[in-house]
Amino acid sequence: MARNKARATDIPPHRRDQNKPRLEIDRHTEDAHDQVAKLRRYGEWGRLLAPDADKRTVDLVRSRPDAIDQLVDHEKRLWRRAYPPTGREGLVPLAFVFADTTEAKVANAVAVLEEAGRRYWAPRRYQTIHREITARDYSQAVPVVVTPLEQLTEHGTGAAVWRRLGREGEQTLPAALDNPDGDALFRDQEARADAEEERRRVAEREARRPVCKRCGRKFTDQRWEEITAHRTAWKAGDKAVCGTCHADDVAREEAAAEAARLQAATPPEPEHDHDQEPGKLRRLFRRRA
Question: For the whole model, what pTM was predicted?
Answer without folding.
Answer: 0.72
